[in-house]
Known about the structure:
- The chain is mostly beta strands.
- The chain has one helix spanning 22-33, and strands at residues 5-11, 36-41, 52-56, 59-63, 89-91, 94-99, 102-107, 130-134, 137-143, 148-155, 158-166, 175-184, 190-199, 218-226, 235-238, 242-243, 248-251, 256-264, 267-273.
- Strand 6 (94-99) and strand 7 form a beta hairpin.
- The relative contact order is 0.17.
Amino acid sequence: xxxxxxxxxxxxxxxxxxxxxxxxxxxxxxxxxxxxxxxxxxxxxxxxxxxxxxxxxxxxxxxxxxxxxxxxxxxxxxxxxxxxxxxxxxxxxxxxxxxxxxxxxxxxxxxxxxxxxxxxxxxxxxxxxxxxxxxxxxxxxxxxxxxxxxxxxxxxxxxxxxxxxxxxxxxxxxxxxxxxxxxxxxxxxxxxxxxxxxxxxxxxxxxxxxxxxxxxxxxxxxxxxxxxxxxxxxxxxxxxxxxxxxxxxxxxxxxxxxxxxxxxxxxxxxxxxxxxxxxxxxxxx
Length: 285
């Protein structure tokens, strides 16, 4: 029998935006492994440590304190399902509730969303790219300047695809779509493959990849990445540290992972983690 529930007590997770906040990875691990996860982080504002929760492939109940919030503990209670045998496809419609500093997300239906008739249509045309550092790694980015688009960005031979549509035409932030395939060498050494949509810290492209905690823009998007590993960790972190549940999440036998979402966003990444990996981001760790 496969283990479907896991506990991670007393973590000492140092949060790092835009790809590695604690609740962001906790949810990503639950989604990717298709398990129920209980994760307990310590609270230390000086070391940027906070964020705990109870996660299933269909829901998330969590608490993420911000600097200056009261330091007393928080009790989280959630009803979790008895998970059936593992399935290749996870699909869900999202429902978000927030209150008292806690957040709960639940999901449970298939949206079947795709902008085009087929997500296997010929690849989109090339767009101007630029290079920027994100979390000490060199990403290839494309700016999301149009009201809608179908974009492909590659870092070497590794490519990601994004179909998006802004829901408000007067969005004020700058967003970028990035790809990375390489070896991370800061605070550890591991291989990564990452597809990420991020809100830039400012209105200049040089700020893309820097930390941004708040955003007002809202979009529909569908993101695809074809990874060399089965260890892919999808996450969606929105403004003021709120999580979103994907409307659909599909894993293909050829390694392609597709996520569909309608949301306000700060950053999200489909991480793929290498064979020995314990980290997340669409990362191949």
